[in-house]
Amino acid sequence: MLDMKLIRENPELVKQNIRNKFQEQKLPLVDEIIELDVKARKTQQEADALRAGRNKLSKQIGALMKEGKKEEAAAVKAQVEADAKRLEELEALEKEIQEKLQSDMMVIPNIIDPSVPIGPDDSCNVEIEKYGEPVVPDFEIPYHTDIMARFDGIDLDAAGRVAGNGFYYLMGDIARLHSAVISYARDFMIDRGFTYCVPPFMIRSNVVTGVMSFEEMDAMMYKIEGEDLYLIGTSEHSMIGKFIDTIQDEEKLPYTMTSYSPCFRKEKGAHGLEERGVYRIHQFEKQEMIVVCRPEESMEWYDRLWKNTVDLFRSLDIPVRTLECCSGDLADLKIKSCDVEAWSPRQKKYFEVGSCSNLGDAQARRLKIRVKNKEKKKYFAHTLNNTVVAPPRMLIAFLENNLQEDGSVSIPDALRPYMGGKDKLEPKKQ
Questions:
Q1: Where are the extended beta strands (E) located within 235-366?
Q2: What is the per-residue pLDDT across 41-52, written as a single tens digit (0 to 9) for each?
Q3: Of 286, 341, 279, 288, whose CA–CA distance to 310 is shortest?
Q4: CA angle, 412 as apex, 411 and 416 as ends, to 5°?
Q5: Which segment of 87-96, 215-224, 363-372, 380-389 scores lowest on mean pLDDT?
Q6: How many Cβ atoms from other residues are within 10 Å of residue 62's Cβ?
Q7: 265 with 212: CB under 8 angstroms?
Q8: Residue 86: alpha-carbon gap to chain centroid
């Protein structure tokens, strides 16, 4: 959510940002917000004047009664009653205006960073850099669920009977590999100075609307029936929510946290071969990272965050690349974002395995996460988040890139301590 002062003083900047995000349908909202702001301030001024006059008139009534001026006192009483009725009307109007103003403000996109490429959708995302040499082996790479099946490592049919489509049972060595990746990612981030966190896996609606746009909320979140609770779609929401409605001492910044959690997503519109298996599912586990910092430090942290993901994947012998997300591919709260994509030797292309985002002060403004400096001045913090690793997609990249011609899967040195010292996995069937 933008600062009202910015919209009031720079409406054309806000409108151009909307055009850059190819959301022209939202342009009329800017003028509507400005009109509502004028009406809100005018209403508040009149209400404040009536509140201030109420005490003065009450004193007049007392003084007039003491002087025996009953008729004049009655006239002032009538004025007080009329003012009270008007104040009641104004307070109702104030509430109505503020609710509409808040509703409109929540859908105006954040001002994107000048470095963001302009484009309508992800087809305009720009490759930044490749890390590692992508290899296509001489032998055929099976579909990832077929690789897992050779190890008796997956049961989609049973999961379908139990929970429906979009769920799975992982078994044996594949399940152990899944847990090993999570444990390794946890320790990897702890070694980089992040505080480990296991957050709540449900959050209230005020946290949901504080951390994401309405469009994202509708597409992702599962609501608990009869409760003001949602299952988290990613643990960054719960971690950022930890700071809701707080004032942090500037000297304690930055807060750097890494978290484990299960994640639950509706995943609307997931179709096609590459969306099946464990690529796009309703339940998965993930290691995440977040930063709460001073505004002037957020871009430095942005670069450090996505590099963590690149370094982790490279430590497991998986080639990756980074993509700068264009304006039309940015969620409304983000000012800058990049995807980390892993190489798929089967598809002979890269696919997304993580996303790093700088949200500026948008989440902090919605959640009222403020910082107090040495001069006692308060300002909104900047928040960032990034995927360390999400094992379902990581497993696809890991298995494809470490598959050997004989059907075994090699285990990189970094992961062996988490796999009981094994240097490879042997298939149970070909």
A1: 246-249, 255-264, 283-293, 320-324, 336-344, 349-358
A2: 999 999 888 887
A3: 341
A4: 70
A5: 215-224
A6: 11
A7: no
A8: 43
Give the Cα separation of 76 and 85 in Å (integer).
14
Query: Two tokens at 152?
Result: 């008796």
Note the pLDDT of residue 74: 77
Q: Exposure pattern of 193-232 as b/e (b: 16+ CB <10 Å)?
A: ebeebebbebbeeebbebbbbeeebeebbbeeeeeebbbb
- Can you read off the two tokens belonging to residue 262? 């299960």
Q: What count of residues does the chain have?
A: 430
Q: Is 135 helix (H, G, I), strand (E, B) or coil?
A: coil
Distance CA 165, CA 278 (A): 11
Structure tokens at 402: 């470490």
d(CA 371, CA 242): 14
Structure tokens at 276: 């099946």
DSSP 253-289: PPEEEEEEEEEE---TT--SGGGTTTTS-SEEEEEEE
Strands 195-197 and 246-249: unpaired
For the segment 190-238, what is each residue's pLDDT rounded down to a tens digit?
Answer: 999 999 999 999 999 999 999 988 778 878 899 999 999 999 999 999 9
**Tens digits of per-residue pLDDT, 305-321?**
999 999 999 999 999 99
- Strands, E assignment, 109-183: 126-131, 154-155, 169-170
pLDDT given at position 58 = 66
CA 31 to chain centre: 28
